[in-house]
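SAMPLE LOG
Freezer: B-3
Tube label: C17
Construct: single chain, 554 aa
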Amino acid sequence: MRQLLRLLIGLVMALMIGGLIGGLYHLRNVALDGAVASTQGVARLLDEHLGRTLATTDAILYRGAKIATARAKGEISTDEELREFQQLVTSLPERGAILATDADGNVIVSTSAPDSSNVNIAFREWFQDLAAGEQVVVGPMFRNRFNNRLIFTLSRRISDDLGNFAGMISVGIDVSVFTDYHRSLVIGHNGFVAATTKGNLILRQPEPEAFVDRSLVGGKLAQAAASEPNGTLRFTSDLDGIDRIVSYRTLAGFNVEVSAGLAVDDVLAPWRKTALLLGSAMAVVALGLLGVASMAFRAIQREEAISSGLERTVHERTMESEQRALEARLANDSKTRFLAAASHDLRQPLQAAGMFTEVLAANVTTPMQTKVIDKLRQSIEATNSLLTSLLDVSTFEAGKIKPKLTSFRIMPLLNGLVDQVEPEASRKGLSIGAIPSSSVVTSDAVLLERLLRNLLVNAVRYTERGGIRVGCRHRGAKVAIQIWDTGVGIPADKIGTIFDDFTRLDVTQDRGASKGLGLGLGVVRRMASVLGHKLEVKSVPGKGSCFTVIVAKG
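STRUCTURE (predicted):
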């Protein structure tokens, strides 16, 4: 029981722990999958927002390039160019400034610093790209020397009538305008949004100041974007060392990649709280289960102690009962041997008394003497019958009778029995006979004859008028041998006990020496048991009885 309980507790604990681990693993995957979906959504929004900003700004630059070309041809003055640019600035989708340079990189006009004629930006990478032949270039984030603000640029090439490089027009877009946009996004404490071009940061939120002049050339994100324009990956950033899930998208036409990242620690923070809560609950349940198990083990221990005591008591009682049973068997065997010896030894003097009675009967002359001799003869016969019954009982209880089954016709056996019992029946004025039958049965002929004789003798003994009949009925594969009488009958409450030893019906008539000890039907029961035959009794008090022996057909 203890082992089974331990196994059950271990199984329950294993299922609980396995279920907890499986559930937490599933919740962790759900959280990470949610982070992937969230970063992809933010990257898509940034793609759309920055894409619209750059497209609109480029359209304004296209108009500004025509104004700068007109100034280069002398069609308008520098002041007129500045006024035109100031009008264009109001059309920009985000806060910014417009400037124009000549082919050497000298600033000709700037809306953020009108007096900037001594400024040269030929060293800027995006200026060099335009001079080399590119038409539109997005420049990285840097600090504007005029107002000290962080900006990134969108620049367009200015060409003369021959297509030669004549300068550039550029819009500086204030990075801070993306701060509010970043705040509207749910990307966690260590999340970010960023845009890069050629591995250089255009913008980065939050804290863009910390990422000025930081290059991402050769980084994992740049490598991924080079092979796949859109995607999601997880890596530890080279800039701040934080493990993140990052989704990125490439803006068509501007060579810009936008990205959005969520820190794995931020993503899994709610999951960790859930894991802690579930782990604590599991610990409480486990402690409760162990407590219940401990109580159960103590109860089992008490039960085992009680059971052990009961087993000892039962063992002692069993040994005592076996000893008493042995003594009873020995006493019963002794009784059986005594009855057998006594019955055998007493029958010898009875036989001698019978012989002397017959000698005496041959020498009597008066009716009175004859009557006394008849009474003596009856007493000897009754005593001999009692001893025979006792000997039969002791023999059957000793288990020494082994039936020899054969198949034989039943009618000769029944006729012989009727002939044996007929004198006694005639003396009482009773009719007796056997109904003819062709039945063949399987039994021990000697034992069956003794069984039926006892029943016939019993029928004659308890019948005062009328008669006795013996016959057979077929019952499928069986033959029912029946003995009917018109005797006193058996009360319904006595039928269940008539086959018990020393049981006799209480009758008002005194049958003298023929009353017996009540062993006749007990011997019949034992014989039927040895032969394997079933006994049946039907009786109506005052009208008679029918005893049936069920025998297999031969």
